[in-house]
Amino acid sequence: MTVPSEELRLASEFPPADRDRWRELALAVLRKSAEVDDPEAALSTTTYDDITLRPLYDASDLPAGTGAAGLPGLPPYTRGARPEGGVASGWDVRQRHAHPDPAVTREAVLADLENGVTSLWLVLGEDGLEVAALPGVLDGVHLDLAPVVLDAGPATAEAADALLRLLADRGVAPAGGNLGADPIGLRARLGAVPDGAGLDTAVRLARRCAADHPTLRAITVDATPYHDAGGSHAEELGCSIATGVAYLRALTDGGLSVAEALGQIEFRYAATADQFLTIAKLRAARLLWARVAQECGAAEHGAQRQHAVTSSAMMTARDPWVNMLRTTIACFAAGVGGADAVTVQPFDARLGLPDAFARRIARNTSALLVEESGVARVIDPAGGSWFAERLTADLAAKAWEWFQRIERAGGALAALEELIPERLARTWAKRSKAIAHRRDPITGVSEFPNLAEKLPVRTPRREPQGGGLPRVHYAEPFERLRDLCDRLPERPKAFLATIGPVSAYTARATFAASLFQSGGVTTVDAGPGTDPATIAEAFRASGAAVACLCSADRLYAEHAAPVAAALREAGAKRVWLAGKGGYDGVDGNVYAGCDAIAVLETTLDDCGVKR
Fold this sequence. Notes:
Elements: H1 19-30, H2 39-42, E1 45-46, E2 52-53, E3 92-97, H3 102-113, E4 119-123, H4 134-137, E5 148-151, H5 156-170, E6 177-181, H6 183-190, H7 199-212, E7 217-222, H8 224-228, H9 233-253, H10 258-262, E8 265-271, H11 275-295, E9 305-310, H12 322-337, E10 341-343, H13 356-372, H14 386-408, H15 412-415, H16 419-436, H17 476-486, E11 493-498, H18 502-517, E12 522-525, H19 532-542, E13 546-550, H20 553-569, E14 574-578, E15 588-590, H21 596-606
Parallel strand pairs: 3-4, 3-10, 4-5, 5-6, 6-7, 7-8, 8-9, 9-10, 11-12, 11-13, 13-14, 14-15
Antiparallel strand pairs: 1-2
Helix pairs in contact: 9-11, 9-14, 11-12, 11-14, 12-13, 19-20
């Protein structure tokens, strides 16, 4: 290949681009369909943390201070906890196991470790395996190569002692892992801190690890309960930092140095299908924890150990195959965001205990991203992006503000009495409204539902213990209606009164069909035509109780009122119209942004379905 001696100037033929020129061009396009004065405001969106996401960023949006993000492996650790990142080996692929049968779990554990999984996350106690089964499950597992993370809830002390005995019996030093002590997380999950799993137990285990097993950590700050309750990213971050600070106080009061205490804590965060917010959240988490370490006089020990797990709240029971796409995006975001360990939940997690195929797909998600896509070959790929750096800084600022409110309320435990639940409930109410209005679409559930799907059958899992913060699933409002309709001898039906030629009604008929089907209501259409009597006769033949007019605005002007009148005479209990605008005989409208849940519940009521 011949390389020109002079420097290539690929953009030299073009005038320089600047923000004002972009605004001018964007404004010209936007004004073709709406009155707009500020193109950036018109194209901006706001997150649940009141952070504005703009359509354009430039160097002026970078956080103040040259090199504010620092360097990988150095404070403030925004760009990663390790200087080498995951270039050498990728991230730790951590698989979760909660099957109560020890034989099944042992077989699954060995299959995982033989096929790319590098650490194990074992659920013990009432939500999973019996603690006594731990030695048998780990028979054949090289504990000096494969880290084990425990999640035993009220049985934390018993499970930790069992693992430490096993290590002693084998005479090996653990490759890493965590005993899983998290009393504040248990308070969030269960509503109380069980006996034997409190702060005193966490301190005892941490002192033991620091003294005898320096590669093993004792404490997990699990922030997923706050995410699972419907909380925002900054709320999850703020709660985690408040919890971490509470543990630092307890550990240092228990005799550990600040550096030793920092080394005993691992953080667990939810990774969602919103890849940019997940990337920014993990970067912001390291920045926040580094600030805590700096305030404690141990900045050089402030590298946060992170475990990212794909969100439970985003998983769906309906069309579960789409969960593979959600978890792939979340896993990608976790890796790009710099998580040390990543757990991909199996796509069938909402249906019961995962089978071998689901576990294989879950672990292979990381294998594909690390080995084939090479995601880990670049250290902090988002670093330097004007958007990513601004979002990281904004999220960190919102989280720090929330952390300070928790501290003023007396700390994480005290704030769990009222402050945290009330704040999370308000955020969940906002998110629920956006889901109901389909502004937060859920593919396969609120959008593009498949009423003919055959769900895979799985062994039921034990329901997790409750009593604390609620556990929500974003798809639940729609799935509840789908489940209701599926149990009926005959599925409720909505008639689509299509007016005019196919080209005129297809867009709105497709939209209306998707909306009704998202709640389990099947649809039938009238086909092309404008004759009210013909459409009314098709309605009678359909057996539907409600109808929805579907066409273009220009045809509504002439035909909506007479067709609605004919449908009413034919027995329609309610007549909807796809689109906006009021017409005689029309009871309500369905349109992008309408309250789909309210429309569906009204439709089921009209169809005589008891909810």
